[in-house]
Amino acid sequence: MSFEVIEHDGKRYAxxxxxxxxxxxxxFFSPAGSSFQFGLLAHEADFIEPAHYHPTIERKIDDLQxxxxxxxxxxxxxxxxxxxxxxxxxxxxxGDAITLIxxxxxxxxxxxxxxxxxxxxxxxxxDRDKVDVNVKR
Length: 137
Known about the structure:
By secondary structure, the protein is mainly beta. It has a single domain (3-43, 62-120), classed as Jelly Rolls (Sandwich), CATH 2.60.120. It contains one helix and eight strands, in the order E-E-E-E-E-E-E-E-H. The strands form two sheets. Strands 1, 2, 5, 6, 7 and 8 form a six-stranded antiparallel sheet that branches. Strands 3-4 form a two-stranded antiparallel ribbon. 16% of the residues are buried. The model has no long low-confidence stretch (mean pLDDT 92).
């Protein structure tokens, strides 16, 4: 297993790149229209990407996605329906990467962990960027 999509009732909850996944050339797994592009960069030795910059382009983004890569430890991510029923658990270990896209989720630390985390900004505060949901465990 290298790349996995977590979906439920037509909603894309997450994308996972499992540790040890290998590609021959740079590959992005997210749909082109996604507001967050998730993939692997791969190039042969001596590759040089030409010097460049990314121009400022106004984009409308109405979702807040979060990606993290587990550096050490073990993390469980639970996914819930809109009515609070858990439908899936994913256990991530060192080297696994996940993008959380839509839907209700929670993170449980099973073994002391450290992750690199990236979210879209700007950060508007926990009261605006996060909504707690009562779920059935």
